[in-house]
Known about the structure:
By secondary structure, this protein is α+β, with helices and mostly antiparallel strands. It is 51% helix and 18% strand. It folds into 2 domains: 2-107, no CATH class; 145-376, PPM-type phosphatase domain (Phosphatase 2c, domain 1, 4-Layer Sandwich), CATH 3.60.40.
Amino acid sequence: MYISTLTILTGKNTGTIIYFIPGALFPTVIFYNKKLVLTLSTLIISLFCVLFWVIQSIDPYIVLTDEIKVTYQFSGTMGVIIASFLMMWYFKNLNANYENIIITKNENLVHSNNKIKQQKLKLEIKNKEITDSINYASRIQQAILPSDLKLNKYLKNKFILYLPKDIVAGDFYWMENVNDCIFFAAADCTGHGVPGALVSVICSSALSKVVVEEMKENPAEVLNRTRDLVIERFDRTDKQINDGMDISLCAFNPLTGNLNWAGANNALWIIRKDGKEIEIIKADKQPIGRYVTHEPFTSHNTKLNEGDTIYLFTDGFADQFGGIKGKKYKTAKFKHFLLSIQDHDMNTQLNLIKEEFNQWKGNFEQIDDVCIMGVKA
């Protein structure tokens, strides 16, 4: 304001008008508030424009001597110098503060980064421990599955496609031989991964107990008794557990070709030799485990002739998302595919089914365990 008054009094020839430039910029130095800086700078520039017009349009009101003009100019110059030193001092302190803030933030970042590295290392160790435990659990689960030697001894013309979603699985295949009768099944326990694997161990051991120890031969009776054992074992805890399994269970006599079958939610498909259609034996709509009602399972009997093929499977294959539109594979498509590969031997069928699954899945994540058994009489 001092420079403004000086300019009005002394006129356009004093040269003091140049002091408006630092004057207009000074608010940007002393204030942090952007609105206040903008307001003051606009006010100073507006005043500068008005004064510039005034001193260019009219004569000064007061005519000063050269000596007084020099005095004013000297005082104005000193004012600018003092303001400049103040600005330098301010910037120096501001820069020091910023340096301290940056140093503090860098120290905090280094500390945080070290903590993150330590936590990452702990997580990696925990993850390795968990993975090692699951891998060991997989070895235990493999022990409940029938060995290739045993399968090849009793089911010579067969294939098994077994694709766990995780390291361990809720799906499993099972086989026992009792009194010239071969019992075999494909089962899907509740869930997948570790929980499903734990349930599969319980259900598999219950099946073996009923067939091998209790010597039950009718598949429906086997499922009825297995259901009782599974519920009994889950009832040992105070919390109610509703886990269980869906299963397709066969009892096949290779000497007579007689096939007894019972199913819990999972059906049996039969393709006769040179057949063009799939014969479907429907399962009872209830699982092995706790359910709303516990009806006796139904036993079905049929005869397999040489060249007839039966398929037992869980729902993982048909439920897999994939293809161009990312939809489920579905049962109807699976039926059509099985019919299309009937001219091939069982090992080739296995490879074709596996290839079909992988091509359909593409880059999509596998959503469930897959278990398919094919047996040709």
